[in-house]
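Quick one, probably user error.
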């Protein structure tokens, strides 16, 4: 077989050579040890936690080594493409602090190793396709769907491995005449790789996450180019990651089964193999067993979920770090205020079997993260969230910023800051009572008679002075407690509750409920300071009037 002639027959218009491409995309001028890596999503419009895990891993590896992170759009499957998906992906990742140095952007491509969208690279793939054909390493296959199904059925009936290999590779050694006849008839063809591998052979391979793997050689003649001339993932992966000078391929471990073929393909093309970082799936506990997070069953897989709930970006980021690198939490404890960029991220610390996603833990991390923010920062982030997800609440926050900031400042700072908020959605139930529109009428404990409660509130109004400090304020509450025959001695009360009609805690609760409508609130003295005398008195009076 004259492979040169076959290559010319199949790709008459390809005049570029691999050498020209090597020159056009020279080795990068990167410092020793710099990681050049990429995200290579298919633009399906669904951005999920897995993207974030992969994005964060590749971003950290690139940027902490002084390397490059680029975005390549794998749009070879036009049917699955959703308009605007690339933009959504770029924006979402940016939101999480993952910025690309080059690649696809909102306005075209940026960088010297493009185009960065695979559909625009057809000409490049064909250069290497032609090369492989001219070397006898690839060939056209004119099999019809029917022939392929018949082959599969026969293999299944014989209990053989299914696939296009060995004796089943019908077009592997066909003559030029056969090929020419099919071409003349205008029949569609795909380009297949001519595998020289044998499943009898195994070799060792080092994956940065999975460790040492024993790999069985590939013997299948996989498709390189589909009948429309567009490459399969495998072929595009080899050509693109070579020409874009990727040093590390960070991707999901669903690609592990085809890794033997990828290794083979790099070799056949004469390319240096990159390092591989195969990330396990995100798992969650379902009852007592673990399972993969699923798009269908788990709303928490989608990144939009975190935005709508109101998890601060920083919390999600910190949490993902926590599950990816087991030493992150200890590092964070030792460096509470350091930037996450200072943490030495290592792909070797990723759990090879996949990380366990634990929502309750995320909530904890988020509470911590929010508790360390300034009131001003909380205000800004909360308002931004509310503008999108609770515009009415946002209006209130914006109408009086100082008021909102002082509310959000309660219990902030100091050694043990309050941890009331895990997500911005928690803010309204927590602080809504400060706003008259959200204030609810109190429902008092029916162990107490209305006139006792009324007496307490009236007595309180008679002595209430906003100029008191918190100790003086509480002394007044204690005095009222004793005046009505309740006790301030909580120990004695605990020893024999039946000996007392009520305690100072009950008295405080009456006042708290009158002011806030609820039995729980942050420190009541502080709440009243923030509300101011007029509004506090008004609220207490309004409750008195109902009793
Ligand atoms: N387009 C592939 C995917 O979304 C990319 C895998 C890779 O990073 O190589 O799974």
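Nope, works fine. Designed sequence:
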């Amino acid at each position: 077989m004259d492979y040169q002639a076959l290559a010319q027959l199949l790709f008459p218009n390809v005049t570029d050579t691999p050498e020209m491409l090597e020159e056009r995309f020279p080795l990068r001028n990167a410092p020793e040890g710099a990681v050049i890596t990429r995200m290579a999503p298919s633009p399906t419009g669904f951005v999920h936690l897995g993207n974030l895990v992969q994005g964060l891993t590749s971003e950290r590896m690139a940027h902490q080594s002084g390397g490059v992170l680029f975005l390549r759009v794998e749009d070879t499957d036009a049917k699955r493409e959703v308009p605007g998906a690339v933009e959504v992906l770029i924006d979402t990742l940016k939101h999480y602090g993952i910025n690309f140095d080059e690649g696809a952007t909102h306005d075209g491509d940026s960088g010297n190793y493009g185009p960065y969208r695979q559909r625009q690279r057809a000409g490049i793939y064909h250069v290497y396709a032609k090369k492989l054909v001219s070397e006898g390493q690839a060939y056209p296959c004119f099999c019809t769907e029917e022939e392929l199904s018949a082959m599969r059925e026969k293999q299944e009936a014989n209990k053989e491995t299914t696939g296009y290999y060995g004796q089943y590779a019908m077009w592997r050694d066909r003559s030029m005449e056969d090929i020419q006849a099919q071409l003349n008839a205008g029949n569609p063809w795909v380009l297949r790789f001519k595998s020289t591998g044998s499943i009898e052979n195994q070799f060792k391979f080092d994956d940065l996450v999975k460790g040492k793997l024993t790999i069985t050689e590939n013997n299948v003649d996989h498709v390189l180019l589909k009948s429309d001339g567009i490459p399969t993932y495998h072929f595009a992966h080899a050509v693109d990651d070579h020409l874009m000078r990727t040093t590390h391929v960070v991707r999901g471990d669903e690609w592990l089964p085809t890794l033997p073929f990828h290794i083979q393909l790099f070799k056949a093309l004469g390319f240096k193999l990159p390092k591989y970082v195969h990330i396990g799936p995100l798992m969650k506990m379902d009852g007592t067993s673990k399972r993969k997070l699923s798009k269908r069953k788990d709303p928490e897989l989608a990144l939009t979920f975190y935005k709508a709930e109101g998890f601060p970006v920083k919390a999600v980021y910190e949490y993902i770090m926590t599950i990816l690198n087991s030493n992150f939490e200890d590092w964070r404890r030792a460096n509470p205020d350091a930037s996450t960029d200072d943490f030495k991220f290592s792909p070797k610390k990723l759990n090879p079997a996949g990380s366990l996603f634990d929502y309750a833990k995320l909530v904890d991390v988020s509470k911590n993260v929010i508790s360390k923010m300034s009131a001003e920062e909380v205000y800004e982030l909360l308002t931004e969230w509310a503008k999108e997800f609770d515009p009415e609440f946002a209006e209130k926050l914006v109408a009086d910023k100082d008021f909102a900031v002082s509310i959000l400042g309660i219990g902030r700072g100091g050694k043990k800051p309050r941890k009331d908020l895990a997500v911005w959605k928690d803010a309204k139930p927590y602080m809504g009572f400060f706003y008259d529109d959200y204030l609810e009428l109190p429902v008092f404990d029916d162990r107490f008679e209305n006139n006792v409660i009324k007496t307490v509130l009236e007595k309180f109004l008679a002595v209430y002075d906003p100029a008191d400090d918190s100790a003086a304020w509480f002394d007044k509450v204690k005095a009222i407690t004793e005046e009505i025959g309740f006790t301030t001695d909580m120990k004695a009360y605990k020893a024999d509750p039946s000996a007392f009609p009520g305690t100072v805690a009950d008295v405080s609760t009456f006042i708290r409920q009158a002011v806030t409508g609820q039995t729980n609130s942050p420190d009541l003295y502080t709440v009243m300071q923030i509300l101011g005398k007029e509004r506090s008195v008004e609220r207490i009076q309004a409750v008195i009037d109902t009793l």
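DSSP finds 23 helices and 13 strands in the chain.
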